[in-house]
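Intended use. Records like the one below are meant for learning the mapping from a protein sequence to its folded structure. Do not use them to infer anything beyond what is encoded.
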Amino acid sequence: MNKPILYSACPHDCPSTCALEVELDQEGRIDRVRGAIENSYTNGVICSKVARYSERIHHPDRLTTPLRRKGGKQSGDFESISWENALDETAERLLKAEQLYGSETVWPYFFAGTMGLVMRDGINRLRHAKRYSGQHKTICTTPSFNGFIAGTGKLAGVDPREMADSDQVILWGTNAASTQVNVMRHVLKGRQQRGAQLVVVDTYNNATAKQADLFVCVRPGTDGALACGIMHVLFRDGLANWEFLSQYTDDPEGLEKHLQSRTPEWASAICGVDVKTLEKFAHMIGATPRTYFRLGYGFARQRNGAFKCMPLLQSCRRRLLAESRRWCIAQ
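Structure written out for the chain above:
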């Protein structure tokens, strides 16, 4: 007997937003979950976390009621209470804090996690109505997003399915093999169909780096120096696309002058990438028009975050085809 199938999308905080096919058991509950085959991005592939969704929902150890701590903060002793009592106690604590110290003393701190947009952003309605404190998103994402917008004018990117039409894919600061299995699926298509090269820039030899044709290992917090060193080589060796730079960027001559002292030797001393590898990487970028950049912004979550450098690096590439839209993607 064929089981009923419903169609949905993954609610996790992940840019893939995979299309899902959800089988129902005889009682109408979630049973098997798989990637939608007809969706050309998901292509029948999802991560193990979502593939085991039914186990999470129906597991006998799953919490189904609120727990209230009985002992001290480190006692680990909790008791089950009703939802009504939990909501009442929470509301009482919030009201008490408001009365004693003012509404701004309450600061809802949250982000996406495993929630959809409605659940994630719904708490802002309470925060606004009660005039609680708050911040725009999180400490780490806002600076990286604004830095990228400052470099490009817009936070936008390219469909990962275009990896299949690329001759080189650069994954800069993203361990896609562990965090976005679909991305690696499209990388594989590019390698099989066009012989595309895979370059990985990261701080450790992770699962994605192990699949790379070239792995560029940088010291944490120093990929900005790597980007500067690459741009130096592109300008020095005549690989910069001056026509593009003159039309779409501000003061490319000033950029070239600024980078004259950012030699491969200078960058190597900071980021730990040897000069030979850095120059090889720069020439791979300069010699390959169909290069696809995919950026993870984990690298930006420290004081030397250099997310803003990436649009500059990509703009310097010779024969960069603006009309191809294959110039960057922010993860």
